[in-house]
Write a structure and sequence with these properties.
It contains 18 helices and 12 strands. It is of the alpha/beta class.
């Protein structure tokens, strides 16, 4: 996307205000709270709860925002910021902005085009997409939709090493630049909103497209025992229809088959590995030459161990507050992680980012880039691919303007002296 001499911020402002003069307002709200509220109105209650909810009393979700609010930007004056450079380099690629689209599962809950819409939006805006392990569309279809645009792959360590090898091989084959290993979901967190609604999308065949499109998983289905028959009622029949529609192939053939139900059961049985250790990281390091990042690191001891394990980067993340209630906020953990790795590997930040000012703060504290999650999902729910693109344009625009107004002409000028901490 050519931003011209105005820069991303002023260009986006001009588009919005000129549109307003013609009677057009943004379809997707700029304000983060309004964005979430509108998404809630257009999504099904159980779908919104799955996306928006966190673990337990959701203290970690609140802590993520409070932590960002405690760090305050200290603008500097009389610096030439007429030309601003928001670009960063990650693993040999120069990116227009220090943003990536975080892996978010079950995007079909937000929009029928799901991961395909997000892939197209990321490619159009020059923002890398991290394909979710729990996607609603196979990685190959998303890669095809992106052309040569950058994409990464998120990996959950299944109990089947053969399946992990297959996923990694497929990620390599479809042009992924890196593998992001999510470490903090070896078990599903205590997610109160989902529990209150008794709703888990995977049981209904949603969010398992990477599995049902995989030859190893299909072989595991061949070996799986037939699923048990439960009580037949309206809810059970509805779930059966959802499973039938989600599974690849003919609806009527799937309806006569036990395979869709077996797929959901097999997935639940194998998708996480609570026995994961550093030995598994070493095994994975020997499996691929792609850069490997560990997502979910919050302790400096783990960060130092990761450097010793030969990984290429870390994503400081508490999974958006979805796993451990009462966890440390990601941005509070960030400075210690940056100090611990001492520039030897790349550090990214995830969780709680809602605007361009948050991006500025994360980079000033040492992150190389940040991952955006829920905001783009809300944009997807509101307006599909166009909604994701609007959210990304707004984030990049606000970051560009924040950087300039703080007296920084490039990302390289951001540092701890750009911030102060308010107790």
């Amino acid at each position: 996307m050519d931003r011209g001499p105005l820069g991303a911020g002023r260009l986006r402002q001009t588009d919005v205000y000129v549109g307003g003069a013609r009677g057009q307002r943004p379809r997707v709200p700029v304000n983060p709270q309004a964005l979430e509220q509108l998404a809630q109105r257009v999504m099904r209650p159980d779908a919104f709860a799955y996306v928006a909810g966190g673990a337990g009393a959701e203290e970690t979700m609140r802590a993520n925002r409070v932590a960002f609010e405690r760090w305050r930007i200290v603008p500097r004056m009389l610096r030439d910021v007429s030309a601003r450079d928001t670009s960063v380099e990650l693993f040999g690629r120069t990116l227009l902005a220090p943003l990536l689209l975080a892996p978010v599962g079950v995007l079909e809950l937000a929009h029928r085009d799901a991961d395909l819409a997000v892939a197209r939006a990321g490619a159009a805006e020059g923002i890398p997409v991290i394909f979710s392990n729990q996607a609603s569309r196979p990685m190959e279809a998303c890669a095809e939709a992106m052309g040569e645009a950058p994409r990464w792959f998120q990996l959950y360590s299944s109990t089947s090493n053969e399946l992990v090898e297959s996923f990694v091989g497929r990620a390599e084959a479809c042009g992924c630049d890196a593998i992001v290993v999510t470490l903090d979901t070896t078990m599903l967190g205590w997610r109160s909103r989902d529990l209150d609604l008794a709703y888990l999308p995977f049981i209904r065949g949603k969010g398992i497209a990477q599995y049902t499109s995989d030859p190893v998983f299909q072989r595991l289905l061949d070996e799986a025992p037939p699923p048990e028959r439960g009580r037949v009622n309206i809810a059970a029949l509805t779930t059966l229809l959802e499973l039938t529609k989600a599974f690849p192939g003919s609806f009527w053939s799937n309806l006569r088959s036990t395979r869709p139900r077996a797929a959901a059961t097999t997935f639940i049985n194998i998708y996480t590995r609570s026995s994961l250790t550093w030995d598994d990281v070493s095994w994975l390091r020997g499996l691929t030459k792609l850069p490997i990042l560990l997502k979910g690191i919050l302790h400096e001891g783990d960060a130092r161990r990761a450097v010793d394990a030969g990984v290429d980067g870390l994503v400081v993340s508490n999974h958006g507050g979805r796993q451990v209630d009462g966890s440390i906020a990601s941005v509070d953990a960030l400075p210690r992680i940056v100090t611990a790795v001492d520039g030897r590997i790349t550090v990214l930040l995830d969780s709680g980012v809602r605007g361009g000012a948050d991006v500025f703060k994360a980079l000033a504290l040492g992150a190389r880039a940040v991952l955006i999650g829920r905001p783009y999902v809300y944009g997807l729910a509101i307006a599909g691919e166009d909604g994701v693109r609007e959210v990304l344009r707004n984030l990049v625009a606000e970051f560009d303007l924040t950087m300039g107004l703080a007296g920084c002409a490039s990302v390289s000028e951001l540092g701890r002296d750009s911030l102060t901490w308010i107790a």
